Amino acid sequence: MARVCQVTGKVPITGNTVSHSNIKTKRRFLPNLQTKRFFLAEEDKWITLKLSTEGLRTINKKGLYTVVKELRAQGEKI
Known about the structure:
The protein is an alpha+beta fold. It has one domain: CATH 2.30.170.40. Helices cover 26% and strands 36% of the residues. It is built from two helices and four strands; from the N terminus they run ββββαα. Helix 1 packs across helix 2.
């Protein structure tokens, strides 16, 4: 699977590495992804999500069940 956060949709972006002599070469900035298991109490099962640390904060703020419901409404298979 690609390096994409399932909650926020963050993807790698491109930029330049700039050397001391100001030579620019392409590089990728990867999102800080974590693979995390959550227990979904409403359905009595474990789910695994690949999310960024911002996605973890979103789950802490809104609640796991709300976030999962929004993802399923968007067509994500969880």
